[in-house]
């Protein structure tokens, strides 16, 4: 039976410092949950609490509906892959992959079969006799994944598995992981990353962590389109966050009236609009300002425009004749492309 993961108010502290604060989170069976957040926000600690390498100060961890809080790691039946591969250098690839199975005393014939299958799934069948030092970083990580899959885990924990790889390999491996997930739809995956592209690409849902706490949880689309707070908005995809006042006459940015669809959270709010949804030239919600910075990014230009002391970013299709620093320009955005957030929630 495949199992999901449930954190029930899990708190972890080191020397009295709370590094994971009352985490409540459920990962459904077969789901990929990306745990996304900056370094030090508690992601790895959460993952280690599932693996059994840290003991919560309070709260419970459930796997497949079963309370495993008091079980040692080896009895949790979990596959785990970390950033630094952690292969045994003196063992051949096939021995590395067989390691967990031998520890579980799986019959020899079955070990052979499972190792072969895991190596095939990860595209490493041709390398079974090599030793780790004879492999590239990407290949070593594939072996680490094969080793985790060989034990046929219900739950796979991945901790920044791609961050030691260069950009090109990272993107290939991301596609590989997506393929593996399609081939193993029953395996529940908790994927720790600080990289929003990995989270958006792989996560069925994303849990956003900030300073030991869960900030938001939702599908990539939900969190991107309608982020719950300023932290989520800026961490996931980058955003213009502009202070506005909300009254009976409408929503005002400085002296300008702005049209926004959706509810206002209060009299002071933050207008959130993604840079690629801000256009150059006339249109709805027109903002006049001065170019303070312009960056050419290949297919787009990023304009930073000073609008009455607010910095507004616009990512526009590459311009033949881009404006220069100090030029006056007009920006605009559609009412349905902006959302209003509660002001200053990040600084509580
Ligand atoms: P993330 O994975 O989001 O980068 P971690 O969960 O690794 O964050 O760490 C969260 C906080 O806990 C950090 O401040 C880190 O320094 C601290 N921490 C992690 N492991 C230990 C440990 N074994 N002893 C003391 N502090 C730790």
Automatic annotation (TrEMBL):
SMART domains tied to this protein: AAA (SM00382)
Gene3D superfamilies xref list: P-loop containing nucleotide triphosphate hydrolases
Domain of life: Bacteria
A GO molecular-function annotation: ATP binding
Pfam families (UniProt xref): ABC_tran, TOBE_2
GO CC annotations, alphabetized: ATP-binding cassette (ABC) transporter complex
Domain spans labelled ABC transporter: 5-236
Keywords: ATP-binding, Nucleotide-binding, Transport
EC code(s) of this entry: 7.6.2.9
Protein's name according to its UniProt entry: ABC-type quaternary amine transporter
Species the sequence originates in: Streptomyces cyaneochromogenes
């Amino acid at each position: 039976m495949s199992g999901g993961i449930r954190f029930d108010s899990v708190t972890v502290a080191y020397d009295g410092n709370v590094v994971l604060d009352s985490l409540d989170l459920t990962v459904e069976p077969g789901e990929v949950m990306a745990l996304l957040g900056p370094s030090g926000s508690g992601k790895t600690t959460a993952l280690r609490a599932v693996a059994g390498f840290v003991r919560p100060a309070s709260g419970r961890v459930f796997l497949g509906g079963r309370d495993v809080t008091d079980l040692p790691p080896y009895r949790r039946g979990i596959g785990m892959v970390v950033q630094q591969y952690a292969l045994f250098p003196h063992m051949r690839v096939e021995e590395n992959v067989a390691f967990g199975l031998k520890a579980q005393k799986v019959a020899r014939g079955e070990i052979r079969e499972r190792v072969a299958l895991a190596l095939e799934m990860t595209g490493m069948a041709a390398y079974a006799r090599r030793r780790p030092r004879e492999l590239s970083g990407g290949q070593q990580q594939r072996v680490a994944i094969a080793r985790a899959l060989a034990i046929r885990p219900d739950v796979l924990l991945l901790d920044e598995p791609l961050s030691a790889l260069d950009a090109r390999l990272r993107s290939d491996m991301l596609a590989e992981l997506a393929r593996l997930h399609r081939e193993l739809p029953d395996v529940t995956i908790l994927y720790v990353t600080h990289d929003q592209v990995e989270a958006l690409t792989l996560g069925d849902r994303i849990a956003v962590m900030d300073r030991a706490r869960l900030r938001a949880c939702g599908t990539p689309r939900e969190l991107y389109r309608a982020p719950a707070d300023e932290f989520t908005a800026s961490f996931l995809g980058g955003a213009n966050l502009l202070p506005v006042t909300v009254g009976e006459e409408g929503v005002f940015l400085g002296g300008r009236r702005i049209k926004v669809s959706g509810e206002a959270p209060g009299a002071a709010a933050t207008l959130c609009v993604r840079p690629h949804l801000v256009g150059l030239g006339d249109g709805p919600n027109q903002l006049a300002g001065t170019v303070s910075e312009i960056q050419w990014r290949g297919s787009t230009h990023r304009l930073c425009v000073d609008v009455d002391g607010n910095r507004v970013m616009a990512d526009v299709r590459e311009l033949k004749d881009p404006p220069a620093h100090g030029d006056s320009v007009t920006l605009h955005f559609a009412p349905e492309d902006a959302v209003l957030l509660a002001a200053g929630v990040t600084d509580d």
